[in-house]
Amino acid sequence: MDSRLEALKAWVGEELKLDNSRVEPASADASFRRYFRVRQPACDLIVMDAPPDKENLQAFLHVAQMLLDVGVNVPRVLARDLTRGFLLLSDLGSKQYLDSLNAGVGVDALYQDALDSLLRMHLLGREPARRLPAYDVAMLDREMALMPEWFLARHLGLAISGQDRKMLDALFDGLVRNADAQPATFVHRDYHSRNLMVCEPGRPGILDFQDAVMGPITYDLVSLLKDCYIAWPAAQVRTRALQFRAMLLNAGVAAGEDDAEFLRWFDLMGLQRHIKVLGIFARLWYRDGKRGYLADLPLVLRYVRETADAYPQTAAFAKFIRTRVDPLFGPAQARESA
């Protein structure tokens, strides 16, 4: 029996006085959180199940209020039981950006709306963001360390030599310096097509923001435009990235000396993120039993390969990918997908 689900239904029915017979799964994500939709005559609601020993609901509440205060569209908290780890939230619907993007419906308008909301978070969230954890050297390094452990060693079975380790350390150091060189602002950390909902025009619903930090200005932009779940032509990505730089400049926000510097920030920030994601997606399978993320590894590795090939300072890593990683990747994917 799912004891947490039974407790959640009792909370909904007995304490909140809602019809708990119409509680149904809404979604789950890469964390330990689960979401259930409560069907009601007037409007549907969402209940979050976040085990308090594994999830930080205070962080969710803090960031949710911060984003509401700056006028972006996030779920409103209607009731809470922090002891048991339950929240009752407004429902932003069930249509992810990813659905519409894959269908080719309103793509340009959706991205413009997402960029507008991102700009609002950058502009109005800068001062509140100073109360968030810093996306510092320790956090960036800790994220990238997941790739050698879970992707290289566990998924590929690749033995990392001392020379490999030296190359990776130099790479990670350069990527941290690239992040540190950028203006710092509010960073959602997972601003992509599975965490954006199609709502009314101009107001995308924004989810999964509880891990927000104060960090590099290109981080959320590259999460959105070099999305781990859908890819666009490089020229289109570049155009949208520079469109956002122009939006920042028009709003009086520092965005690099020129387009080339901003794009270098953007690309190398993406390399840091995608190195991290290779490790996270592999860990989600081997540690947590979530196989579905294996299907997303080829796109993430493609982003890593393309960016590493594009810059002299990442040439050694590009060679490592071609000669050591690529030959093992296909067999590893086939083995684990069987």
Walkthrough of the structure:
The longest helix has 28 residues, at 259-286. The chain has 2 domains: 3-90, 2-Layer Sandwich (Phosphorylase Kinase, domain 1), CATH 3.30.200.20; 131-337, Aminoglycoside 3'-phosphotransferase, Chain: A, domain 2. 54% of the residues lie in helices and 11% in strands. The model has no long low-confidence stretch (mean pLDDT 94). It contains 13 helices and 9 strands. A 5-stranded antiparallel β-sheet has the order 1-2-3-5-4, covered by helices on one side. Strands 6-9 form a two-stranded antiparallel ribbon. The chain is an alpha+beta fold and 338 residues long. The chain starts with a helix and ends with a helix.
Strand order of the largest sheet: 1-2-3-5-4
Task: Estimate percent helicity.
Answer: 40-55%
- What is the CA-based Rg, rounded? 21 Å
Helix and strand element order: HEEEHEEHHHHHHEEEEHHHHH
**Any idea what the CATH superfamily of the largest domain is called?**
Aminoglycoside phosphotransferase (APH), C-terminal lobe
Backbone shape: globular
Given helix and strand content, the structural type is alpha+beta
Q: If you average the pLDDT, what whole number results?
A: 94
How many structural domains can be distinguished in the coordinates? 2
Give the CA-CA distance, first to last residue. Answer: 30 Å
Compute the number of strand runs: 9
- Low-confidence parts lasting 5 or more residues at pLDDT below 50? none
Q: Percent of residues in beta strands?
A: 5-15%
**How many helices in DSSP terms?**
13
Largest sheet: 5 strands, antiparallel
Q: Which topology of the largest domain does CATH recognise?
A: Aminoglycoside 3'-phosphotransferase, Chain: A, domain 2
CATH architecture of the largest domain: Alpha-Beta Complex
The first-level CATH class name of the largest domain: Alpha Beta
